[in-house]
Design goal:
Layout: E1 3-7, E2 10-13, E3 18-25, E4 34-39, E5 46-51, E6 57-59, E7 67-72, E8 77-82, E9 91-97, E10 100-101, E11 105-110
Parallel strand pairs: 2-11
Antiparallel strand pairs: 1-3, 3-8, 4-5, 4-9, 5-6, 7-8, 9-10, 9-11
């Protein structure tokens, strides 16, 4: 059974930082691109960043220079370091690989 479990969300002030983590099990983690997505109230889910099996990252324009995605294939984890957070970063953040999704973790940035 495949499981993706996110952690690390919370409430932070504008300009603050959070680090999200996603732990995978039941899947051959190292061969898949892994992505972080987010969905704000009333908006569609959007890609924030992803990282290929070989480690090449891609970022949405809105987070470039502020967020960093990384992966540890040995530990089957992917992380998202989020700096200089803005109120518009407020959303539920999900990790995803292949066709699987985690349950999401709430990130709230207060102004």
């Amino acid at each position: 059974q495949v499981q993706l479990v996110e952690s690390g969300g919370g409430l932070v002030q504008t300009g603050g930082s959070l680090r999200l983590s996603c732990a995978a099990s039941g899947i051959r983690f190292s061969i898949y691109t892994v992505g972080w997505y987010r969905q704000a109230p009333g908006k569609q889910r959007e890609l924030v960043a992803n990282i290929a099996s070989g480690g090449s990252p891609n970022y949405a324009d809105s987070v470039k220079g502020r967020f960093t995605i990384s992966r540890d294939n040995a530990k089957k984890t992917v992380s998202l370091q989020m700096n200089s957070l803005k109120p518009e970063d407020t959303a539920v953040y999900y990790c995803s690989m292949d066709r699987y999704w985690g349950q999401g973790t709430q990130v709230t940035v207060s102004s």
